[in-house]
Write a structure and sequence with these properties.
Length: about 180
């Protein structure tokens, strides 16, 4: 549980946060990438975690996996359709303290114009006052989605019988948020 004195409204810091994903490629390795934050806010209520909330907007056009050609392909209609849907959004609909420093954040994830409920297990990782005197709070967590639920169906069958890209995608969150003054 985070301390009572952290109750307040926060801005998620894009320079110190990461919104990542992991997909199995050719069923033998994992490809990792990230999508930059456009905007993000969080309201923390230590006395009543259910009154807490979070909202993030990610910029699909900035997707990065370390391979320029793969990044360009992920922006096409085969995958995230950045031209038609340049943002991925998440807005919480509920927050539950599930013990210790762990919280389940339930909300609506929207990709490619398709919204689905997801639950993210987040862990409070600490608090610090940064070099500018600002209170900073951290959370990290993951959830797994099925990309087909969001209309992302592109794939290729391998000669060995498997497929090129897994349906299950792990979403990773490393969040640093600064309390608004």
């Amino acid at each position: 549980m985070y301390p009572d004195d952290l109750t307040g409204t926060y801005t998620i810091d894009p320079a110190h946060s990461r919104f990542g994903f992991v997909a199995r490629h050719a069923m033998v390795t994992k490809v990792r990438g990230s999508i930059p934050l456009t905007e993000g806010t969080a309201v923390l209520d230590a006395g009543d975690p259910a009154a807490s909330s979070v909202r993030v907007v990610l910029d699909v056009t900035g997707i990065r996996t370390g391979d320029h050609n793969r990044d360009a392909h992920l922006r096409t209609g085969d995958f995230l359709d950045a031209d038609g849907h340049p943002s991925i959004t998440f807005g919480s609909t509920g927050v539950e303290h599930v013990g210790g420093d762990r919280f389940e954040v339930t909300g609506e994830l929207t990709m490619r114009g398709v919204s689905r409920p997801v639950t993210i297990l987040l862990e409070y990782t600490g608090t610090a006052v940064d070099a500018q005197g600002m209170t900073r709070v951290g959370f990290e967590g993951t959830t797994v989605i099925n990309r087909r639920d969001f209309g992302i169906t592109y794939n290729a069958v391998l000669e060995t019988g498997g497929v090129m890209i897994s349906e299950r995608i792990t979403l990773e969150f490393d969040l640093s948020a600064v309390r608004n003054t």
